[in-house]
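I had to read the description of the data format several times before I understood it. The format is easy to grasp once an entry is in front of the reader. For illustration, here is how one protein appears when written out as sequence plus structure tokens:
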Amino acid sequence: MATSSCSKAEDEAEFDLSKALKYWQSTDKTWNEDELRSLELGQALYRKNCAACHGKKGSGDNTIGAPSLVNNSIIKGDISYHLTLVKNGKGQMPAFSKVLTDDEILSVVAFERNAWGNHDYSVFNQTDE
């Protein structure tokens, strides 16, 4: 898995509010700009750090122990466990606490919990793990 992350400047330069609104409008939630920024950052960080194992569409790869994130019980379960899992890793999954900030991990988790048919809008009520 890649270990680079977007800098704040890269995030600002690449964020397109109208594109983000269009992409996320199919859900039944009205997203505010901060939430959209977080989802977009989470998607970019997911692609850089997670997609190599879990797949671009979250379908996973059981041959390497990377489960599908689509309709996954962890994705649908307790958010604090999900955040801890990403931070600390488990089994074959590496820890990302030294690669990503807490805010970046929250963005990745927000993306995972709202992509591929997952819908957990409460993720944005989290302030810190």
